[in-house]
């Protein structure tokens, strides 16, 4: 089974073999990541948002999977060059979010609605 | 040690406890993810791109770690509601990228420069 | 009445007075513009999309107006440093779009739905 | 000479002729605008940022002009459906920015560097 750490190593080798490290600055990788996020948004931009994902046609589902992969790959590459541990960062943020959005007050509060992260 | 699968479960419970599932459509989560990606971009927008990340001040480093976490959390939440396996998708995409950018032709080619994903 | 050209001049003076020109590269301004676009997206990310804009609360309407302004300002600043004429570019693109999406075939076609630009 | 107001009218007719108004909600148009902004970012993502725009190859310059157009067109379409006057909004925001970033304190301040809008 592939792990995040293994993907990070594979991406490092992939970039090194192609002499791409000089381009992989945090700034450039943040840009590339945001471009992939926009490509995910593009798939859904004219959708009404209520159709179950399983009802999307196969081409859209495949495109979605590829964009998810692209985002994860650039995120891991970004973590690699900045030295950030993505899982540790996520666990820390989950804890902060639990404090920021207590169940009692967050429930049904329109203002905060849906914020898994902020 | 926390795993991706465990984070996905924690996020599901977090959303359920707050009655946020109706807002967590693939469309809305793709939007939220792209907003977090932009917040990461914002940290670097006036940087010249050459300064080592370790030289950034502590507040910027912390903000960066939080944005990385937000992106990962929304990505996992998106995977949760669409049924996409992020690691399997990344492995599949890595294989496609290796075919698309062979070492020999990709090396130093300006056009493709730096594309870990596309 | 203020014109686009006047705004462009005002922005140039604003940047010059603050010694900000070195930061206003096309790359950095494209990033800044995308961050503002994401801030506009953020306002609508948990909305169902059907509520008329006039029914939004005043704070949301004001925030929306400010984000529209920010996007236009960065777009004009980008045009200023690249020498692009935004109105001429838009007229040219409208013509290309009319060819790409003829009324007869575009009407009701799900695939192209809603693309004013592409 | 084409004006912003004329472009807004042309876009309205363009959308009406194709039955696209139902898709042109503020939410969807904000998404589409952010996707176009990302396409502009993509052109610059591996650039070092110092090369003068006039030195870019012709294909890149043309692509840049088209993305600028797409952003402006979606911004105007967004203004059309929300009733926002883009020029008035920009003038108002310029005034707020002048108060927020006074010349004396903003000059050379790293924190605020380059913020034409915020």
From TrEMBL, chains A, B, C, D:
UniProt GO molecular function: nucleoside triphosphate diphosphatase activity
Q: Name one GO biological process term.
A: nucleoside triphosphate catabolic process
Keywords linked to the UniProt accession? Hydrolase
State what protein this is by name.
Nucleotide pyrophosphohydrolase
User: Native species of this protein?
Assistant: Leeia aquatica
